[in-house]
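WARN  no MSA supplied for this record, continuing single-sequence
INFO  ligand: glyoxylic acid
INFO  echoing inputs
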Amino acid sequence: MTHHRLLQIGPITPALDAKLATLYDIHPLWQEAKPAAFLAEHGTEFEGVVTHLRHACPAELLAALPQAKFIVNFGVGYDKIDLAAARQQGLQVANTPKVLDGCVADLAFGLMLDVARGLSATDRFVRRGDWKTSQRPLMTRVYGKRLGLLGFGGIGQTIARRASGFDMDVRYHSRKPVAGSAHTHMASLIELAQWADFLVVACVGGPSTRHLVSREVLDALGPQGILVNIARGTVVDEVALVAALGEGRLGGAGLDVFENEPHVPAPLLGLDNVVLLSHIAGFTRESRRDMEQLVCDNLASYFACGKVLTPV
Ligand code: GLV
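INFO  complex generated
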């Protein structure tokens, strides 16, 4: 173990928690009965923070760590970290990009296929014994359709590559066009939603993207359109989404993320045109292993040269 004293906000994975404890002088904040009192007394001891995408890193917590130089986050999404406060305090922030893009892209297709073809709904139909007396309704195909991507970073671009195997026409909306991409950038999200059969949310969470998928965007996607969200629940106005689905103004939705996890709006539970998952897009043995390694590599890089490997 090195003498570097690090604050870990909450549990990450059992394997990584154990490994970090052998490498650094790690303090598990979640085991403190009174975290604020602990930080008031010991906050100056910590050189940096290790955290997980689900644990909050608010400004007050960071302010109690005046000697900290970095936050290393397990997760590509860092919306639970107060980035503005971290930047103001001069903290380097690292996430785990790229290593889970493929698994998240796979799950986006899993959700598109499930909602469009009714896989989960048909599974329930068979288990109920309904096949003996009735037939499922005709559903809609995925290949050859129009795919709109909200966000065109590593995950969006991986989804676009997968889409070529489905002969899909792909366009995207992001703040700026991505240089060198063959896909059409659309400056208006509403126009992208009007054009698309499937709208997949693949952008960052946090204040900059809150409720970008509004009632107007959902109405533009329309009664035949399918929304898939594998990014963050906050990007979609969930009240507007529940209303659009309930009123038949939207064709269906595949949701891996929600505004207030693990709370899922009750009206969605009874809808067969909605597939509900529990934030599992990056949840494979392979991506977990690679994310664990990248957390360790970010820490090693900081202590070797003063810079994290994958800064936000
Ligand atoms: C998953 O949601 C991640 O941010 O890594």
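Residues 285-305 form the longest helix (21 residues).
INFO  checksum written, moving to next record
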